[in-house]
Design a protein that fits this description.
- GO terms for molecular function: phosphatidylcholine lysophospholipase activity.
- With about 550 residues, the chain is α/β, with parallel strands linked by helices.
- The chain has 20 helices and nine strands.
- It starts with a helix and ends in a 9-residue tail after the last helix.
- The strands form two sheets. Strands 6-5-7-8-9 form a five-stranded parallel beta sheet, sandwiched between helices. The chain has a four-stranded parallel beta sheet with strand order 2-1-3-4, with helices on both faces.
- Helix content is about 45%, strand content about 10%.
- The chain has helices spanning about 5-20, 25-50, 70, 85-95, 110-115, 135-140, 155-160, 175-180, 185-200, 220-245, 265-280, 285-310, 325-330, 345-355, 375, 390-395, 415-420, 420-440, 460-475, 510-540; strands at about 60-65, 125-130, 170-175, 205-210, 320-325, 360-365, 405-410, 440-445, 480-485.
- The chain has two domains: about 5-245, Rossmann fold, CATH 3.40.50.1110; about 285-535, SGNH hydrolase (Rossmann fold, 3-Layer(aba) Sandwich).
- It is elongated.
């Protein structure tokens, strides 16, 4: 969501006509404070809000909405800080000893098992400041016919946004400016009730703040007392109703993930990709991931220039394996050096060379693209992926890779994280594999990695991997079956020791283990290709019968 345009549009009018400060010094200083607030908010939204990961079993969100007092006007702000009570709530929540602690086992044996399972002691809470200075209750109200911000309502901006729609606790801080502007108490109360009731219907827990005094150093006006009394009555009535029913359930949602283009557009869209797709709330993680992507792109560019574009054509003694896919195929999280392929492709080279069963030369090429989903690679007619610039065509019509004989497909992990329907992902994966097999290529299809490795698997994830396994089994009786490998859904990859700094991508140890498991399924395919080559040679040999008489 983006609230900056509203502040920029009405900032002069708001200071001059609504706040009611007569002193020029106060007005100018308030204007500067708002400009600084807007700059800090823009950075906070870019770094922290738009990068929030979806709500999970171990990660939750608190959102503060409201006016100046919710936004934190008057607070000391720094770059990247939320401002207002949201910034301080983070500290108090972290310090609290009551936030979802788990009791440790009493016996030593059970304690050891508990530690091996790496159970987290606490759950994580992100506190987001989504308040907008200068707004009143009507601007946030979801009431039909609301005359607030009309089509650009702040309520819809926040609670339909990818990052905040799954927030579970909402703090509403409105009404203070309604009093200052002289808006009738009945109207303010009606809008506040609408906001709170709509949020509760969405299964969210709501805190409603009282209104600040319009003139703190003077006696409270009657209208102010009346508004706060009305707010207290609303809260009391809601509490009585809540005691008669169970707590609302939480519906977790996966964050949307945006694809990013290949070639020179990698670097220009890296920031946008991290900010809008990966869903990591930690600033350190977001920055480190951005640097990792820049480094990956540089290493990939050198690798393509030195190793891929100079590949000789496939011959009787030289063959190619190509890895296509998303982040896990590309090797995001792996330790990369100049000229290395990254991911399982780099480790597969070693395992293939060490194998005593492989007699001919094999080149392993990493052609995966981070951020892509199955639709981006699908050759289906009418595919809405990358359209004319499909990754599939880029790879398999290129001079260097079009004659590859073995293809490893690693897609579906980001489809789960994006929440793409399983049926759609399966359809695209089948299209990719079937098209490759029609071209005479042998195919390995990987399972999907967990969208939240350290939490329980979602039902959609299990359903996708089951669909992949069923598809591979259905091709087992065919001449060129789709082999189920590598397995990204193994328990090994649900351990913290196998994950990278973002606790989503794999680290080097995990990629090596993944490649080792993939090699066990891949080497029989390589030997089959080699045997077909030898068989062709033997079939063309003609013997002179006179030599055997």
């Amino acid at each position: 969501f983006d609230c900056g345009d509203a502040v920029d549009r009405s900032i002069n009018q708001w200071i001059g006509a609504s706040m009611g400060f007569e002193n020029t010094y106060v007005a100018v200083r308030l204007w500067l404070a708002l400009v600084w607030w807007q700059l800090c908010r823009w950075i906070f939204d870019l770094v922290s809000v738009k990068t929030l990961r979806p709500t999970t079993d171990m990660f939750h969100k608190v959102v503060v909405i409201g006016d100046d007092f919710g936004a934190g006007i008057g607070d000391y702000l720094t770059f990247g800080s939320a401002g207002g009570i949201a910034e301080y709530l983070k500290t108090f929540i972290k310090r609290s000893e009551k936030v979802c602690e788990q009791q440790r086992p009493a016996t030593q044996r059970t304690m050891a098992a508990w530690q091996r399972q790496q159970h987290p002691v606490r759950q994580s809470w992100a506190v987001v400041n989504a308040a907008v200075p200068g707004t009143v209750a009507a601007d946030w109200s979801p009431l039909a016919g609301n005359k607030g911000v009309s089509a650009a309502q702040y309520f819809d901006r926040v609670f339909t946004s990818r990052s905040l729609r799954d927030a579970e606790v909402i703090v509403v801080m409105l009404g203070s400016l309604d009093q200052r502007k002289g808006i009738p108490v009945a109207e303010t109360k009606r809008h506040l009730m609408s906001i709170c009731d709509t949020l509760r219907k969405k299964g969210k827990r709501v805190c409603l703040a009282t209104a600040a005094s319009a003139a703190p150093l003077s006696k409270n006006a009657a209208s102010e007392t009346e508004l706060n009394k009305a707010i207290q009555e609303m809260a009391s009535a809601a509490s009585a109703m809540a005691m008669a029913r169970s707590a609302p359930s939480r519906a977790t949602q996966f964050a949307a993930m945006r694809s990013w283009a290949t070639g020179g557009r990698h670097l220009t869209s890296a920031t946008r990709w991290i900010g809008a797709s990966m869903g990591f709330e930690n600033t350190y993680v977001a920055v480190r991931l951005w640097l990792a992507l820049v480094w990956w792109q540089l290493c990939r560019w050198i690798f393509d220039l030195v190793s891929v574009k100079t590949l000789r054509p496939t011959t009787d003694m030289f063959h190619k394996v190509v890895v296509i896919g998303d982040d896990f195929g590309a090797g995001i999280g792996d330790y990369l050096t100049f000229g290395s392929a990254g991911g399982i492709a780099e480790y597969l080279k070693t395992f293939i060379k060490r194998s005593e069963k492989v007699r001919q030369s094999w080149a392993v090429v990493n052609a995966a693209v981070p951020g892509t989903v199955a639709a981006d690679w699908s050759p289906l007619a009418g595919n809405k992926g990358v359209s004319a610039a499909q990754y599939f065509d880029r790879v398999f019509t290129s001079r260097s890779l079009r004659d590859a004989e073995v293809i490893v497909v690693m897609l579906g992990s980001l489809d789960q994280r994006k929440g793409i329907p399983v049926a759609e992902t399966k359809r695209h994966l089948m299209s990719i594999c079937d098209t490759l097999r029609k071209k005479g290529k042998r195919v390995c299809l990987a399972t999907a990695a967990s969208a939240a490795p350290l939490s329980k698997n979602a039902a959609s994830e299990t359903e996708l991997n089951k669909a992949i396994q069923d598809y591979c089994k259905s091709t087992a009786v065919e001449d060129m079956p789709v082999v189920l490998a590598p397995r990204l859904d193994l328990p090994l990859f649900h351990r913290e020791s196998s994950l990278s700094f973002d606790q989503f991508h794999f680290n080097s140890t995990a990629y090596r283990a993944l490649a080792k498991g993939a090699a066990d399924s891949l080497i029989p395919m390589l030997t089959a290709v080699e045997w077909a080559t030898w068989k062709t040679k033997f079939d063309n040999v003609k013997y002179d019968p006179a030599l055997y008489h």
